[in-house]
Amino acid sequence: MIHVIYDARCPVCVRTIQLVSYREETLRTGGQSPTVQLHAWPEGKEVFQGLAASKRPVTLAQRVWALLPTGLVLGSCQDDPMRLIYEMEYLAFVRLPTQEIRQRVDRVAVLPLQQLKQAVSQGGPGRWWRHAEAFRLAAAALQKEHIAVLDEFLPEDTCRALSLGALASRGEMVRGATGAAGKALAKGTEELQKVLNEPSRGDVVKFSDDGNMPGCPGFLEALDALVEGLQGCPAVADRLQHVDWANGAMFAIYPGDSSRYIKHVDNTLGTDGRRLTAVLYLNKDWKPEHGGCLRVFEPTMQSCQVKCDVEPVWNRLVVFWSTQEVPHEVLSSFKDRLAVSVWFICGRESLRNEESFQRLFNPQKLRCIGQRNRRACLLRAAETEDERAALRELPLEATFSPAKLSILSRRFRWRREEDVERERDTVQDVAIRNAVAKALTGQHPAAAFAATAEAAPPKLRAEPVRSGVPLHFELVEDSGSQPSKSFTHLPARRIPVTFGIVD
DSSP assignment, residue 499? Predict the structure, then answer.
């Protein structure tokens, strides 16, 4: 249950509570259990009992304040009510995996690799997976379940070096940012700081762009060997065909104060080049009560069905597609949780976006895997002879002028993320956004959302396929229960996707 305390004298807070109450009404009409308990201040003082002083609000004047079941606090819901509605919908709709789902995932993504590890006579941490059968099993897992789990991935001394280096660098780490932070930055540092302080993502991070953090050289070499092995497997070769690049390792610590990272997809729009995500966990003596599992959902972002919860145990590597097939989140951590992540980049996709394109020419941001030739990787990414000719003329390390960027934009047909987002908007998406805006400016939510009943349902598009991957993933409706007909103008699973998810 989410406890919400609000200032009933504040008109903005009252409108926020009206919207929240209306959403709760539609959820209950759809057969869901209650998700929120509302308290008009000074009611609800008992909510603060046992709560750390740092989490208690300094003031509730002109505030809508919420306490989540995990102990996390949403401090200013009047500024962004959809954060609270996301949490309500999560409680209402997310379904844990059935025994059938667990067995299906284990049978493909976990057990075959574990059994191979035990059977390899010359195995041991960091060595058992370095042969064709391990690559084949990992590729089959990625093909069928979009995720593979490899335990004892590195030699113990490499793991210890990574762990000690990360802990020693904690003072240099900065708060991890969501996609919303980039948009907030354009509005100024105050707006950015507000976004960074939200509990959507609570880790602190440091990138080792030069690869010189302790343990990094051995870790990156092992990851490159794994990806090169996967590229030789027919099951995933097409998807990894132009994956010649990777970023530096990102070290992340989730403090043990319920910090988390809410449901998201790494490469949401399929524009930033990320194709494969690799995460190594470095948590000695991890126990279930410590939390911090990687929760993986069935495709796509609209799915409310959990596929599996992966425990972040010591020396466990998880690899999964960075695309809409693998929505995931980090559950609240109640003990400090350490992980190191690397993204493997598709050069061909990167050529189609300005920021991704420029990273290909910045060795401090992207490296070629397996010490591949940078020029050869660029030329391999090109689709046409015209593009190859243009890439031959460009210096391998370059910062481009605005005039040059304008020329490159036309030549490589760059697509801006906002344009891709606009293309994906359905009539119903726009109608819901307009309804929320009306409700927050004074119109009663029932009247505001009445117009969305006329909105057309999302259309399924037949997308062309390149290298076995759709250029754009179409979000599909979840197949679970729906609200009763009297509330079909507020479909249960449209709001979380359109408004509640931060990526």
Answer: I
**pLDDT value, residue 306:** 97
The predicted model gives 325-351 an average pLDDT of 97
Report how far residue 331's alpha carbon sits from residue 400's, in angstroms, rounded to the nearest whole number: 41
Residue 374: CB atoms within 10 A of its CB come to 18
Question: Does the N-terminal peptide bond of residue 300 adopt cis geometry, omega within 30 degrees of 0?
Answer: yes
Domain map (residue ranges) of the chain:
2-93, 99-348, 425-500
pLDDT in tens, 389-399: 999 999 999 89
The string over 38-76, giving b where at least 16 C-beta atoms fall within 10 Å of a residue's C-beta and e elsewhere, is bbebeebeebeeeeeeeeeeeebeebbbbbbebebbbbb
Second CATH level (architecture) for the domain 2-93? 3-Layer(aba) Sandwich (3.40)
Percent pLDDT > 90 in the chain is 68
Q: Which amino acid type is present at position 411?
A: R
Could you tell me the pLDDT band of residue 423, with boundaries at 50, 70 and 90? confident
CB distance 242 to 231 below 8 Å: no
Residue 225 has pLDDT above 70, yes or no: yes
What average pLDDT does the chain have?
Answer: 86
The two tokens of residue 490 are 């507020």
Q: CB–CB of 228/131 below 8 Å?
A: no
Tell the burial category of 402 from Cβ atoms under 10 Å away from its Cβ (0-12, 13-18, 19+).
exposed
Half-sphere exposure of 390 (CA within 13 A, CB side): 17
Which amino acid, residue 120? Answer: V
Q: Which residues of 271-295 are buried (b: 16+ CB within 10 A; e: fewer)?
A: bbbbbbbbbbbbbeebeeebbbbbb
Backbone angles phi, psi at 66, to 5 degrees: -130, 140
DSSP calls for 175-213: E---HHHHHHHTT-HHHHHHHHTSTTB--EEEEETTS-S
The two structure tokens encoding residue 78: 């009047």
The whole-angstrom separation of Cα 162 and Cα 251 is: 9
Q: What is the pLDDT of residues 457-499, one digit of tens each?
A: 544 333 333 333 322 222 222 333 333 333 333 443 333 333 3
Give the global pTM.
0.87
Tell me how far CA of residue 25 lies from CA of 39, 322, 402, 487, in angstroms.
16, 36, 52, 9
With contact defined as beta carbons under 8 Å apart, do 180 and 195 qualify?
A: yes
- Are 491 and 482 contacting, i.e. CB atoms less than 8 angstroms apart? yes
pLDDT category of residue 362 using cuts at 50, 70 and 90: very high
What is the torsional sign of CA 257, 263, 269, 272?
Answer: positive
Q: Please state, in angstroms and rounded to a whole number, the distance separating the CA atoms of residues 203 and 176.
A: 5
Domain 99-348: which CATH class? mainly beta
Contact 107, 141 (CB under 8 A): no
- 3-state percent breakdown (helix, strand, coil) of the chain, nearest 5: 40, 20, 40
